[in-house]
UniProtKB/TrEMBL annotation:
<feature type="transmembrane region" description="Helical">
    <location>
        <begin position="184"/>
        <end position="204"/>
    </location>
</feature>
<feature type="transmembrane region" description="Helical">
    <location>
        <begin position="64"/>
        <end position="84"/>
    </location>
</feature>
<dbReference type="GO" id="GO:0005886">
    <property type="term" value="C:plasma membrane"/>
</dbReference>
<keyword id="KW-0472">Membrane</keyword>
<keyword id="KW-1133">Transmembrane helix</keyword>
<feature type="transmembrane region" description="Helical">
    <location>
        <begin position="27"/>
        <end position="52"/>
    </location>
</feature>
<dbReference type="Pfam" id="PF07690">
    <property type="entry name" value="MFS_1"/>
</dbReference>
<feature type="transmembrane region" description="Helical">
    <location>
        <begin position="96"/>
        <end position="115"/>
    </location>
</feature>
<protein>
    <submittedName>
        <fullName>MFS transporter</fullName>
    </submittedName>
</protein>
<dbReference type="InterPro" id="IPR011701">
    <property type="entry name" value="MFS"/>
</dbReference>
<keyword id="KW-0813">Transport</keyword>
<feature type="transmembrane region" description="Helical">
    <location>
        <begin position="457"/>
        <end position="476"/>
    </location>
</feature>
<feature type="transmembrane region" description="Helical">
    <location>
        <begin position="322"/>
        <end position="343"/>
    </location>
</feature>
<feature type="transmembrane region" description="Helical">
    <location>
        <begin position="350"/>
        <end position="369"/>
    </location>
</feature>
<keyword id="KW-0812">Transmembrane</keyword>
<feature type="transmembrane region" description="Helical">
    <location>
        <begin position="216"/>
        <end position="237"/>
    </location>
</feature>
<feature type="transmembrane region" description="Helical">
    <location>
        <begin position="286"/>
        <end position="310"/>
    </location>
</feature>
């Protein structure tokens, strides 16, 4: 009856109803809890990245070993995202979210009290694995709770703003806590995770009861795709150190491709597959995932180059570096809550294109760095442009990836999108670091370091520019494919 009334009222009345709809206190509180999980993930990543040097010194780890404090998290996150996304749909999003947050808090506590590098790396891997379940669970709960359109766009935009706030806070908190003791960068997330756990248990609605029928789990598919993703991410992380053309790297890539081929065969023959292959024919989802790979891949590579430039060449402290990046985070947190209106007005495709116009301009401006670049005229304009680009592109990619996907597959769609983010970050950063190292002398002169930074920036800019062109073409095609309304009689 409600559907018939809405159809009879017409699209204008429906639009007004959607605009007039207000979120109740409980719904808003639930959104805050889900956003806090996003905030926690971004906070943790930013803090631990700054804490790596003192971790290396206190635990007596080598440079090759200490990089796994960061890489182990990426390995766990990227390797288990597809499985995590699908488990949200099969086991229930609320249940997966709560269990994963509890595991995250436990692993973070273990990392904070660890006195051995291996234990710390293992804790980071478990934290990344947990995030591989919380990320698709949180996003899929949002997109299945808030109906498609202005309400969902607004919720996703706020979700993005909390991630930006977490990253900005993590930079400052990481700089301050590292000067006290690096262990606090692991211990601080524990009470935050416990608050998210309690809030989720109270405010997130229970998952709908499932029928009495037997549940089928695609164990073979889960094993092959998770092993393949773990091997791909591991190989990408290790390739800059061992060499891209070495037999070890080539064999690992070949095995990963064989596992993915086997996974495809398994999914075609399984009655209830882990990944319905038809979902990969969804152009909006695939396009958003590729854009996500470029968003995080280029930004993480830029941040890596910027951190090296400010700390190695300019001699800035971690806290000074954090303050240098702070305007970017503040601008993201300011614009992102309003980005949902822009996505609704212009469409996610055009917003992704606009974001990459700003990204590309930002990276080109950063080419001007030298041994004594003034912050206000060289670094700050880049930070401000990225602060505009991120809230334009990130919420738009999330909205585009989940639009038109059935509720039963929202967790999987979120997992595919998050896989794009994480694998893109790993691949682009690996290519950039390899480019920076190629042909550079061992002597760390200012000229050699500056040339290395600029070579990496050229790769970052090229990837951003190619994505910008692809986003423009995709937005044009979508507009031309849109049916023309018949004239009113």
């Amino acid at each position: 009856m409600a559907i018939s009334d809405e159809m009879a009222a017409g699209p204008a009345t429906t639009a007004r109803t959607d605009e007039q709809e207000r979120w109740g206190p409980r719904l808003l509180a639930m959104l805050i809890v889900l956003c806090s999980a996003m905030f926690l993930d971004a906070l943790d990543n930013a803090m631990v990245g700054i804490a790596v040097p003192p971790i290396k010194e206190e635990l007596g780890m080598s440079t090759a070993a200490v990089q796994w404090v960061v890489s182990a998290y990426v390995l766990g996150f990227g390797g288990f995202l597809l499985l995590g996304g699908r488990m949200c749909d099969l086991l229930g999003r609320r249940r997966v979210l709560l269990v994963a947050v509890a595991v995250f808090a436990s692993a973070s506590f273990v990392g904070g009290i660890a006195n051995d590098g291996i234990v710390l790396i293992a804790a980071r891997f478990v934290m990344g694995l947990s995030a591989a379940f919380t990320a698709p669970a949180g996003l899929s709960i949002i997109v299945t709770t808030f109906r498609e359109g202005a309400q969902r766009n607004k919720a996703v935009a706020i979700y993005t703003a909390c991630g930006a706030a977490g990253f900005s806070s993590g930079l400052i908190a990481g700089g301050l806590l590292t000067q006290i003791d690096w262990r606090w960068t692991f211990l601080l997330p524990v009470p935050i995770a416990l608050l998210v756990l309690v809030g989720g248990a109270v405010l997130v609605p229970r998952d709908p009861a499932r029928g009495p029928g037997r549940r089928n789990y695609d164990v073979a598919g889960a094993f092959t795709v998770t092993t393949a993703m773990l091997l791909i991410v591991y190989t990408i992380v290790e390739a800059p150190e061992v060499g891209w053309s070495t037999p070890r790297t080539l064999v690992q890539f070949a095995v990963a491709l064989l596992l993915l081929a086997l996974f495809t065969v398994i999914e075609r023959r399984t009655a209830v597959p882990l990944l319905r292959l038809g979902l990969l024919r969804n152009r909006s989802l695939v396009g958003a995932s590729l854009a996500a790979a470029a968003i995080l891949g280029t930004y993480m590579s830029f941040q890596f180059i910027g951190a090296l430039y400010l700390q190695e060449m300019r001699g800035w402290s971690p806290l000074q570096m954090a303050l240098a990046f702070l305007p970017c985070g503040l601008l993201i947190a300011t614009i992102a809550p309003r980005a949902g209106v822009l996505v609704g007005r212009f469409g996610p495709g055009w917003m992704i294109f606009a974001g990459f116009v700003a990204y590309t301009a930002a990276y080109v401006l950063f080419w001007r760095i030298d041994v004594a670049s003034p912050y206000l005229t060289v670094l700050l304009p880049t930070m401000l442009l990225i602060g505009v680009a991120f809230p334009f592109s990130f919420p738009a990619a999330n909205v585009q990836a989940t639009s038109g996907v059935a509720d039963a597959e929202q967790g999987l769609a979120a997992g595919i999108l998050q896989t794009g983010y994480q694998v893109g970050a790993a691949v682009v950063l690996a290519v950039v670091t390899a480019t920076m190292a190629a042909g550079q002398p061992d002597v760390k002169s200012s000229t050699a370091m500056l040339s290395s930074y600029q070579n990496g920036l050229y790769v970052v800019t090229a990837i951003s520019a190619v994505t910008m062109i692809a986003a423009f073409v995709a937005a044009l095609r979508k507009r031309s494919a849109r049916p023309v309304a018949a004239p009113a009689e």
